[in-house]
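Incident review: delayed structure delivery

Summary: a single-chain prediction request sat in the queue longer than the usual turnaround. Root cause was a stuck worker, restarted by the on-call engineer. No data loss occurred. The affected request and its eventual output are reproduced below so the record is complete for anyone auditing the incident later.

Affected input:
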Amino acid sequence: EQHEESLGAYVISQATHPSDVLAVLLLQRDAGVKSPLRVVPLFETLDDLEGAADTMDTLFSLPVYRGSIEGKQEVMIGYSDSAKDAGRLAACWSQYEKQEELAIVASKYSIELTFFHGKGGSVGRGGNPATFNAILSHAPDTINGRFRVTEQGEMISQNFGHFDRCERTLDIYTAAVCAEQHTVRTKPTEEWREMMNRLSETSCRAYRDIVRGDERFVPYFRAATPEMELADLNIGSRPAKRKASGGVESLRAIPWIFAWTQTRSMLPTWLGVGEAISEVLQSDDADKLRIMYRDWDSFRTTIDLVEMVLSKSEPSITEHYENMLVSDSESKALGVEVRRKHEVTEQAVLELTGHKELSESNELLKRLLKVRNPYVDCLNMLQVETLKRLRGVIGDETIEPVTCDNNEKDEKELLKDTLLITITGIANGMGNTG
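Output delivered after worker restart:
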């Protein structure tokens, strides 16, 4: 029999209704669990987040439920799937607003609410390398000295793998949570909220028009990135897809981000952002948006993250992947459109921030990229060639992959080993994985 603290929360993925939580409570009671696990609903997609406050309000209104949680509730916010569903900017604003709403609901019933932030290591999955600023960018009155966050995969080794790193990471988390308690936070005005709703709606529409609405997108994504090969390499803790069949909607967030990072596109983080910012900057509200960037730390942090990711991206490398791996003319045409959107996004971010070049105030990042990029560029060239050979693609023709004699190692296995090495190198060089 395990110690009662050996297991923590029972997290309900894709929670949508109060019954999802009540069913798990009933299950534990019927099973005779002496010390039931705390039940934590995870609100992942944009629709899940929209209904989160109503779900928890219904639960808190039940005396039997309030009695079972003893005045404490944990709620998990999914950053990865909401961003994959609606794009980074729309998801970020929804997460901000819904945490505010959930905090108000909990306060109404005198419930001590703790948010469990389900973030990944990359920006596209809610991550932020500037941990201190990231914590301070959360909505005011939602942390209150309590902060729980996921650390996944290689991020565990990166942040906690050595004693000095572990100590430093915990120092930053502690300092940020304490500072948040004693810092006067800027709350968005009604004018800023209206602006964010406008930006969110435009960016979400632009993102979904490509990812969901364009029938060329899935063939383009699968041809121009190593997405199909990732599932065969066994480098993740879970299957690449929730369902064996299906398109982007069935793909887990980790390979979704990972595949675009490998090609230096970083598409999930910036797609839709450029259209939203450009639309406002070309209107009479341009100065309002610039003031919002200057005075509201949460919005500024989001835009600065997008700028950082854009500075790491390299459209010419992405184009090389397309030239080498994409044979369908319609998919190639989409690739040209996507790179044009990338350029629009860069210009919009530069105009909003007032910078002459991306991340011009981040000297450390600029030095790192200057050192890393020549090596990562070579790995990208090796990866494209490896993918081409694995797929048996030469120009616009398709041939059968060549294999060695029976007494020698199959060439396909050698190529898969090579691909894995390039994937690892590019991921480390970019500093962004899943």
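Verification: The CA atoms of residues 61 and 158 lie 43 Å apart.
Action items: add queue-age alerting; document worker restart procedure.
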